[in-house]
User: What shape does this take?
Amino acid sequence: MISFNNKGVTYIIFSFFFTSIISWFIEIFYSFVLYNHLVFPGTLLGPWCPIYGVSFVLLLLCINKSKSPIYNYIKTFFVVSVVEYIASYISGEIFNNVIWDYSEYIFNINGRICLEMSLMFAALGLFIVYFIEPLIYKLYIKFDKFINFLNFIFTFFFILDIMINIFFV
Assistant: This one.
């Protein structure tokens, strides 16, 4: 289990931005393949999807790889479902931007989450924690001298992006 104690806040911040930015590019690529044109994901202006970063960090903090994969899958299911519901609520209610609507899916809650997508995101979350996170950690270790600077720059622009979206968009 990864915690603030054994990998530190710097790694948690790096992980948040790394997964937020990589997922932004994946979403753009996916939309291009699916719709044959670029669809910029999310509510914010910058190249990040914070829902993925938040989910990843929460999974890092609460998944214990020594526990049963079924136990971890159930835990992941609840984490990603709660994060997706809150993100949908914030996006819709604060930013007036409905990014997704699962109303047409069976077993949905207010169109914000649905069973099918939560099951898929839980599987993806476990895959990332078990197989991708070790690669992210290696990258973090390799560039550890530069990470604090990156974290500062990304945090500054991320906060600026949020402020611009709240007050000007």
Q: What stands out?
A: Residues 8-150 form one domain. The chain has one domain: 8-150. The first helix runs from residue 8 to 35.
